[in-house]
Amino acid sequence: MIRTLLFSILAFIAHVANAQSALCQCEDTCEHVHGIDLSHYQGQVFWESVGSHSKTAYVYLKATEGGDRIDSFFERNIDLAHRYGLKVGCYHFFRPRTSLSLQLRNFQKQCLPAEQDLLPMIDVESTGNLSTEEFCDSLMTFLRLVEEAYKQKPLVYTFRNFYDKHLVGKLDDYQLMIAFYRDEEPVLSDERDITMWQYTSKGRIVGVNGNIDKSRFMGHHGLREIRFQH
How far apart (Å, rounded) are the C-alpha atoms in residues 186 and 199? Predict the structure, then answer.
């Protein structure tokens, strides 16, 4: 009985320690510039609370996906994020097999230059079952279309392993946000520079229910490098 009780107490202490550790986010213990990205998956966000969280300097909002999908919370999110003082950018989830002109028009209808503080971001996570060569041709053409439309190169988001498998040498002229959910900073196989690191998909923040993606700038990089040029 005593042994069982002791094990129970130790288990409870471990649970509390783990809970405290989970609440101790990177931004609480470092001086990097941090931000978040959001979509309809987070549901209704209490932006007043998010805006008062001093370490959240920017937010990327999902605007569109493919040729016709619009994030159902986008309009509400961008209005309130601005209202409560956050630097805001929009991102598009890229579908390699979908008409590039349709994707661009879809994105442009939501990602309005006048509402942007940050560079548009293209979320690249799938080859669409194309060969690497076909996929890269599609992606590079789309990135050029986005650049022509917004008069500046977009930021590109992808996972470290996806970059190493498909994108080495293709994105040298683009700033990168790399997703890599480990304790150590990401290093790409070609050792090229990384502007931003999405370090967790299980972050927590006051004002958002459930998990959230969190990112920060790497090394000497800072917010001015991804400002939208009006």
Answer: 9
Give the Cα separation of 181 and 197 in Å (integer): 9
Cα–Cα dist 96/128, whole Å: 6
Q: Give tens-digit pLDDT for 178-205.
A: 999 999 999 999 999 999 999 999 999 9
Q: Which residues contact 185 (CB under 8 A, 6 or more apart)?
A: 197, 218
**Helices 100-110 and 132-150, axial angle in degrees (round to 10):** 40
The three-state secondary structure class of 205 is coil
Q: Whole-model pTM?
A: 0.87
Write phi, then psi, for 30 (nearest 5 degrees). Answer: -140, 175
Terminal-residue alpha carbon distance, the chain: 70
From the number of C-beta atoms within 10 Å of its C-beta (0-12, 13-18, 19+), residue 22 rates as exposed
Distance of CA 131 to CAs 17, 38, 134, 136, 171, Å? Answer: 47, 30, 5, 8, 17
Tell me which DSSP letter residue 172 carries: T
Give mean pLDDT, residues 36-53.
91
Residues 6+ apart with CB under 8 A from 52: 84, 206
Q: What angle do CA 138, 142, 146 make, to 5 degrees?
A: 175
Listed residue (218, 221, 226, 177) closest to 198, CA to CA: 177
